[in-house]
Amino acid sequence: MIRWLLDLWQDPEVEALLGRAVELYAARRGALGLALGENGIVATGRSGLNCWIPVDDEAATVGALLRAGWLVAPGSRFRLGSQPAIRVTTAALPAEQAPELAEEIKNALGPARPSGARRLT
Fold first, then answer.
1. Which of 14, 47, 79, 111 is most solvent-facing, going by the fewest CB within 10 Å?
2. Contact 93/32 with Cβ under 8 angstroms?
3. What is the pTM of this model?
């Protein structure tokens, strides 16, 4: 098993494939970061598959995005002492969908909108 793994690490085709994956993930993450910035949203994530977006209320933001058709993770599972945030995995996010997701995140972070529900008084 170890020999097989070593052979893979030394295989030029595997190295090229990994290089393309790194480029693709960076492009997807970069597209979302750019789209978020254009919507006035600060996000971090210079490498890897995720963007980290500070929010006031993780549950409300995750819920709003889920209702809009987007699945993101609350940051509570991934943080120790930082402020609330959501974690957005960009690995499967096509770059052309980044502006749409950024707009939905902006909507989720914005002021509460009337839901059409009747107020109980």
1. 111
2. yes
3. 0.80
The segments of the chain whose pLDDT lies below 70 read 111-121
Secondary structure class of 114 (helix, strand, coil): coil
> What is 8-109's CATH superfamily?
Aspartate Aminotransferase, domain 1 (3.90.1150.10)
Distance CA 106, CA 67 (A): 14
CA-CA-CA-CA torsion sign (35, 36, 39, 42): negative
Q: What is the pLDDT of residues 45-78, one digit of tens each?
A: 877 889 999 999 999 999 999 999 999 999 999 8
3-class state of residue 28 by DSSP = helix
CB 100 within 8 A of CB 88: no
DSSP-derived 3-state class of residue 50: strand
